[in-house]
Known about the structure:
mainly beta; CATH 2.40.50.100; 3 domains; four-stranded antiparallel beta sheet; disordered N terminus
Amino acid sequence: MTRAALLALTLLPLGLAPARAQQRAETRRADIERRVQVIGTVLAVDVFRLKANIEGRAENIWPSTGVWVKPADSLGSLVNKEFAALTDAPGSTRKSVMADRWNPVYRPSPLRCPSTCFILKIFARSRQWVKPQAVLVEAAGHLRMVGRVSPEDAPLVRDGMLLTYWPANNPRRRFQTRIARYVLDVQGEKVDPAGTFTMDEAMGPGRFLPPGTNWEGVIVAQRSAGAVLVPTQALLRFGGEVFLPVRVSTGITTRDWTEITAGVEAKRPFLVLDDKELPRHKIEPGDGAAGPGAPAPAPAGTQPPPPDEPPAPAVRAQPPAVETSPEPGADPGEDPYSE
């Protein structure tokens, strides 16, 4: 671990690598939700067509589409040529009276859905002559809501979760329903499958979106109240674990080890980052050495200072010479002025 910074890290769930720019932040306590975005559309299913069973004329055809009708609701009727001729004949008797008089005899064919249905198209018009098997009305037995979840969020969704949805072109018109028949799409072992759900119950006479409507929605997949929160960008993932850099206090620092005096306890897992762009903790003047009485080693790549030269021996100053008179009886030597 030479020249590697030791960052005390605490384990937290889920995270991403941090950004290059570092900044100081603090944890906070608040509520948090994991929301799943959903998109989908509405399909018409169990589509059927009402056809003419006789040759005749269409009467009182239902004028509207995009609505639900019940089996008892009349979509119109077909009358044969004879009945049409009697009701169209000029005379003083009103047509409604003529129709009531001859209905038991000619029995017009009513147009009705066999069960509650959604009207998609009306092909016939009132007083239009039609041939046998001519298509008069197209309807759907159900409207199906189809939703899709991205592969990233697919594992979080379950049946029974509350879905809030709205038309893509009208976000203010909101509805709610419960997820049902949720399945993961099979896309192979190497591809994360997305999620799909289909619901017929959400699209009924009381509340529905027209077929072909694109809608958007959201599911609250996870919720935690009063959680301790940190920015997701502050977390690091390594070896299947997640780490968070936290502030610590340091004591003695050497080239290989640093004493942690506060901020993390013993046996706490931490991560060693070998990123040269990160600011490093350095040996400061006055820090202790690796052992008692041992000097701190010089950083790698630097030349040690030359050894100090021993001091020169001290030279004791000599007192100045003093001339003294010769002792009596001593030979004074030759007299330089004797000649």
